Amino acid sequence: MSDxxxxxxxxxxxxxxxxxxxIAKLSSGSSIxxxxxxxxxxxxxxxxxxxxxxxxxxxxxxxxxxxxVDSSTESPEFIQGINHTVELPKGLSVSSxxxxxxxxxxxxxxxxxxxxxxYAGRLSVNDKEPGDENENKKIKRSHEMINIDRQATVDEExxxxxxxQEISACMNEQETLAVEPMDRNPSPESTQxxxxxxxxxxxxxxxxxxxxxxVARCDRNYPYFTPINLEKLRNIMCTYVWEHMEVxxxxxMCDLAAPLLVILDDEAKTYSCFCQLMKRMSQNFPHGxxxxxxxxxxxxxxxxxxxxxxxxMHQNGDYTHFxxxxxxxxxxxxxxxxxxxxFSVWETIWTARPLASEHFVLFIALALVExxxxxxxxxxxxxxxxxxxxxxxxxxHDAKAVLKRARELVFELQSLIENK
Length: 420
Prior knowledge:
Layout: H1 2-45, H2 71-74, H3 76-80, E1 85-87, E2 95-96, E3 99-100, H4 105-109, E4 122-124, H5 133-175, H6 188-191, H7 198-216, H8 227-243, H9 253-264, H10 267-281, H11 290-305, H12 307-315, H13 326-331, H14 339-355, H15 360-371, H16 373-378, H17 383-392, H18 399-419
Antiparallel strand pairs: 1-4, 2-3
Helix pairs in contact: 1-5, 1-7, 7-8, 8-9, 8-10, 9-10, 11-12, 11-15, 15-18
């Protein structure tokens, strides 16, 4: 048991690593978006267009053509001085909040003397001319707005950096998560020095998924199956699959182990009995060929013991293939009967092997059909009708009457063989 628990721990860790890789892949896309946003924010707050003052030329900024020096925006002096000066983007109108400056920066600068414009393309707020208080107020206002925008951009960048750090922390936490603690700790002998094949891990991981899905819904209405007992049932299934990887887990195996666990209430004893039961029942699952043999024997039995029923089945869509009996044979009628009746039917099947017939399940199946013989004949049921009928009758059958009829059918066949 410790072996498959060690493998399960490895599989769980692989799942966590795969999940962490998926998170990393998703978060990488968000970090790219944040970088693009930062670049966009910088472009929106610091213009690449600045005026270059040309000596000997006293033209105003409104009439001047674009002669911008991009390198001036990248100079450290410009970045350091941005808190004290207003950049002059060419032809740009500054509007922020409820107050708007309708005139462009260039038009407002046209009233200033060229000495007020330095060679870095910046306008000093302190250089004023008498009588231009309104214009200076506008410049100060624009200076304040640009500083506000710049501070808002810095705050947004800080938020982006904080978000990236949170994502990175989450990724690191996912990657460094240890295997979740389990009550069933694997032994050191099973975890040390073992190099499990990837194919084995994938195969067993798939079986674990099937087991978890099937155990959770197995006999959920029966009071015995509390979470603790469902965990016992899961341990039995996982151990069996680990010891029989060539068989694996198939839906329905839980149904065969559940009644044994209810009676024995012990994992080890239930597992031992389940292994013995599966020596016969495993051939009924898809990897075995016993199911086709059951269908063929049923066809022969009903043709011999009830020719009228056989003719009806043959005429109404020919369902003498007896596919409607598939679940009966797969689970030894476990889902057809009440839980209390399952125990008596199973014991009868086991004891009949050395006493009456090792194929007593065939006579129980034929007895179910014969028990409702009149209803089937009177309604001329076809294949769809008979499937629907027996699905609706699940857990409503009289188990004692069916077993009695099955014994009678055995005696009838024995008499036919003796008198032949």
